[in-house]
Amino acid sequence: MTAPSPMLRTDERRGHVGPLELFFDLVYVFTIIQLSHYVVEHDTLTGLAQAAVLFLAVWWGWNYTAWAMNWLEPESRAVQGLVAVLMLAALAMAVAVPHAFDESAGLFVAAYLTLQLLRSAVMVAVFRGRTMGRNYAHLLAWSAAAGVLWVVGLLVPADWRLAVWALAVVVDYAAPRVGFWIPGRGTAPMSTWPVTESHLAERNRLVFIIALGESILVLGGTLLGGELTGPVVLAALVGFATIVLLWRLYFDHRYGNQEHELADDADPTAAARGAYAYAHALMVGGAILVAVGIETVVHHPGEHTDAMAAAAIAGGPALYLVGNLLFQRALWGRTPRSRVAGLAALAVVAAVAPLLPLIATAALVLAVLGALVVAGGRRA
After folding, report:
1. Distance between CA 365 and CA 293 in Å, rounded?
2. What pLDDT does 119 receive?
3. What pLDDT score does 216 carry?
């Protein structure tokens, strides 16, 4: 067997989250701001679908980097150089987001493919002669296949771009679910990826905090740019309380992303895939929609709630709860009834929202989140 590369962590360093990884996450502060602004500026169903595709690409780039850093040594100069290049690619993606479906489409695709293909190619080289090298070769092949679709999306008429890129996202996200199967080469089963679950848990906690930070930035920026009337101040207080309660739900002792033991029969890597690669995509996406909802309510607290506003105000917390349910299923195989009840309550809020002003819709959503926090506290 080939000697371990100096770019790989030693056993004693497994699970440690270093400053390099936090440095990489700085780009995503800007990226999340760009995505939330995209939703605000494209407040149609098509715009929401476009934002979803862009977010899923951004998330997958971050997710695969977080997994790679599970094995890469952050103190290695070579790893630091690699992360700097990946940061630059991620920054280019963020810069391209506002016009990713028109004049900046080429920049977005070039940056995304650089991020995905370069990282995997380096991992193949670092793990040369080992099982993980074969695993990453399979992952690289799937990223390249999805990359073909991303490039095709640049060549088709603009009206077809969303559909082609959505298919590219499906290919990217399906890869781990089918074990990165390649005809004639078999699969790279999740059991052959020796992941440190605590490392991924911490990485996802940090990026979720970044997503909540976007809501704080939006709230503060909106207050600075407008007149502090009574309704605006009330809307700001409701928005701030919503952020606090979402944070509390995420770090809930029983149902949140806290230190925990996996179910006895759980495959650690498969559980981590479900809980962090997939479930957290919905949880972070929900936090971004919450920021959009807060901005909408603080700008126009007295206006009636239209469908797009309801999708942000009630849909953001609902998307978070769906992700939290998937998180619970992946790690412990359970379905908390309080989360299901919360989703039902948010559906009722969304149904009556067109009859209400924005501030009232936001207050009802806040009441649902508050009830979930109280319920969680009693169980703890």
Report:
1. 11
2. 97
3. 92
